[in-house]
Amino acid sequence: MTAIRKEDDADVVEKASRKMPTAASPALQQSCMFGIRHLQVLLLFLGMVIGYSLRVGMSVAVVPMANASTANPEIKDYDWTKREKDLVLSSFFWGYVVMQVPSGYIANAWSAQKLLAIGMLFCGIFKFITPFVADWGLAAVLVCRVGMGLTQACLLPCIQTLLSKWAPPAERARLGTFAYAGGQAGTVITMPIAGVLAASSVGWPSVFYLFGALAVVWSLVFLYFGADSPSDHRSISEEERTYIEDSLRTTEAKTNDEVKQKMKTPWREIFTSVPMWALIVVHSCQNWGYWTLLTEIPSYMTGVLNFKVDASGGISALPYLVMWILSVPMSWLSDYALQKGASRGTVRKVCNSIAHWGPAIALACMSAVPENGYIWAIVILVLAVGLNAGSLCGFQINHIDLSPNFAGTMMSITNCAATVTSIIAPLICSVIVSEESSVYQWNIVFYVSAAIYFLGNLVFVIFGKGEVQWWNDDSEVKQQIRKKNNEQNETQT
Q1: CA nearest 148: which of 102, 186, 94?
Q2: 179, 194, 198, 425: which could join 44 in a potential S-S bond, CB 3.0 to 4.6 Å?
Q3: Which residue has the higher pLDDT, 392 or 223?
């Protein structure tokens, strides 16, 4: 009865929040204009662009690094095998998984803005020095990749924490999707550029120099112009600050930091929450399919479709361009549905079903593509990746729906579990695909990804929720614990 009453109360609060502020309020007029919150989201978008460029550049660069004769004979190569290439690609996630939960905790307890700026700074440095240490051997490259993972682990937890402070509920899908779409934009931008650079006279090392330097520049800009919350920003207008804080129900912003210091993370409640476990499952399944395609598409393009490295970079980026484009209408339709009275849980599940079941059907169709039907293969891959745009306003934003106060911590937990699948997926792919030109072996990879996409979203549809959970409020947690203790005492008596 308590759980049901909590959900009913959450529904009332959610419906009431859609009515705030009133049409006549200056805050609403301010909300329609470009404000500091949009600048913050733009910076987060660029951070995602840089973050993903640091990750996926290796997906293209690893091909000429293993065998430079395919791109530029004058640049040194290291004669890596397929398994060694997959080891390099997956090593980023070794460090990434270790720092996920600590990053979420630090972002919530200290400063998400400072942690993100510092983390990206060191990630850029590791990227920049990779060509210098590559001559020392494969182990040195792996160390740099692990270091990049350790320092970039804060990216998603910090962005989730910052969005929970800067994005009003009525704009959450639009602003959140725009910020997260930077990952697709980074992929779209990086793959063709990396392909061209790898095939040029300067060769694959230039991929590391360019994107490493950009990461350093962004981190310094974000350290100066970013802020943890509206009340911490020195240039925000009073109207916009009031609009954001009223929408988020944090009108006592000046004392909010003090309250935040006293608020303890409800670890037990988080890990025993069914909707939270639904997020863990769906996030893990998303990463399996997404990162399998992201890391392996260049190899598929060169091995099966016979594209050269410079062409494969551009073609490999096409699915992520479509995903980036589709994210805009999906996010606007998501917020529009909420404004028209649709429940938040229903909207999130519909968006996520498009993002997962659509690609599952597309990948299952790969086996029907004839060996010379490379155009159909590209079309199916574009659909499989492009429809993933729904996940941005699906399960990813759902972290904030369940708990605005602990969204960053929750993201660190789900992303930690999902990162494990990001490590395993390319390694399993390397076991399945012993011959890169084998269409049959690649079809097995696509079938496995399709099944995982389908099952993951099924769990989210059945067990996912859209309402703020009772353990989001520290006082509610204490009240529930006190009630349980009283019940136990009465039972013992």
Answers
A1: 94
A2: 179
A3: 223
pLDDT in tens, 171-200: 888 898 899 889 888 888 888 888 888 878
Rg (CA), the chain: 23
Q: Which residue has the tokens 């091909």?
A: 63
317-335 per-position pLDDT tens digit: 788 788 888 888 998 898 8
The whole-angstrom separation of Cα 247 and Cα 231 is: 14
Measured CA to CA, the distance from residue 340 to residue 411 in angstroms comes to 28
Q: What is the pTM of this model?
A: 0.75
